């Protein structure tokens, strides 16, 4: 491999980036989709293996017209990186219906390489989240889209959990984001389906911000009479948007600074909804700023 | 329906402060002199110079110096780096993530490929992490989905593979080639 030295004084020099140290080039490659990172291996001999030490591995089916080609690509990349991955962040995004083999390979990679930050879009059909992923204790961030949870879960190191269009299909009338996430600081639920539950509990000793969005019952969000219990001593930011009014039956947010509420009031039950909202705002003390907006839905 | 997964941001009540009064007229601030490898002198406020980790540790080691020589840095990229850091100081004083994002995007968009690439070693040498992120992201955006030949000329890389070696490597990685954009 050609030796790279940090020499920049001759700005008219032709060989520009190849004068940069490898860690800079690896940083640049970490911003690229893996397809283009792999293609840099033919630039010159010194580049041949640089892509294999990216810090962020992006695998996105939108970089390929044909899903069959993407699948081949994913398997080849994961085989190459199998024993020496340096990636701390793994981003995988799929369009269409993922097959079991590909799902297994992706989850295996995500769970055995000490990945810190995992971003997964499982495509349409919301496949179930496998037990391997649910028992992975190294993850600090999980951003998951289009998946189904069939059991409860616990992640001891997790600080960020963002779920989008996920279905919770557990046999229980209560879902509880609590004891099993002791270090969680950021929770975001977007358009997730909790319609099976009568009670949703959100609590955590380290929680700093919680966002709940697009959970209107007509779109399969929270059920119509759902009670929400939220209890977090350190929470400073709470947002509840684009959803119907729910009964916040427990509110314990002594550190809350910003509340952001944007709800639909139902036409038939407007009075009941207003009572619920009043109760919610009475539960917020210490709050420094609150925004409330609503629209009435017939 | 909105579909953003970004962490929550406050959408309202972001108080728009009027531009800060010019700090130079408000109170005299300490200036630090930087000298580029082509002997150009730059006088910058201490707060800006302290954004450069390399300069900061130079001052910690020898606090009595008034001029910091930067033997690895030429004037043009240095002036652009200083311009960037001046703006970042304003955002530090008055945080506005949206404006900062907008500024950072415009900062790289208006630069030529050469200016962009020339700033990278400067940001690396001066250890300005935020700028390095912005520059490396911008370079990645400019080479993504381009042909191997385009990327070689972008970086000014001499191809040291023989035609046979290159063909063999392309065959080995055939799974990574499908639909590359026109240059």
Automatic annotation (TrEMBL), chain A:
The residues the entry assigns to the signal sequence are none
Q: Which domain of life is it from?
A: Eukaryota
Q: Where is the F-box domain?
A: 14-67
Q: Which Pfam families match?
A: F-box
The record ties this protein, via InterPro entries, to: F-box-like_dom_sf (IPR036047), F-box_AtFBL13-like (IPR053781), F-box_dom (IPR001810), F-box_SCFL_complex_component (IPR053197), LRR_dom_sf (IPR032675)
Q: What is this protein called?
A: F-box domain-containing protein
Show the taxonomic lineage.
Eukaryota, Viridiplantae, Streptophyta, Embryophyta, Tracheophyta
TrEMBL record, chain B:
**Listed GO CC annotations:** nucleus
Q: Which residues form the SKP1 component POZ domain?
A: 30-87
Q: Name one GO molecular function term.
A: ligase activity
- Supply the Pfam families for this chain: Skp1, Skp1_POZ
The membrane spanning regions, by residue number, are none
Compositionally biased intervals (Low complexity): 1-21
| Residues covered by the SKP1 component dimerisation domain | 129-176
Q: Which compartment or compartments is the protein found in? A: Nucleus
Annotated stretches, region: Disordered = 1-32
Keywords from UniProt, A to Z, are:
Ligase, Nucleus, Ubl conjugation pathway
Q: Which residues form the signal peptide?
A: none
Report the record's Gene Ontology biological process terms.
Answer: jasmonic acid mediated signaling pathway; protein ubiquitination; ubiquitin-dependent protein catabolic process
Q: In which pathway does it act?
A: Protein modification; protein ubiquitination
Q: What is the top-level taxon of the source organism?
A: Eukaryota
What exactly does this protein do? Answer: Involved in ubiquitination and subsequent proteasomal degradation of target proteins. Together with CUL1, RBX1 and a F-box protein, it forms a SCF E3 ubiquitin ligase complex. The functional specificity of this complex depends on the type of F-box protein. In the SCF complex, it serves as an adapter that links the F-box protein to CUL1.
Subunit structure of this entry?
Part of a SCF (SKP1-cullin-F-box) protein ligase complex.
What the entry lists under PANTHER family is as follows: SKP1
Q: Which family does it belong to?
A: Belongs to the SKP1 family.
Q: What is this protein called?
A: SKP1-like protein
What is the originating organism of this protein? Salix koriyanagi
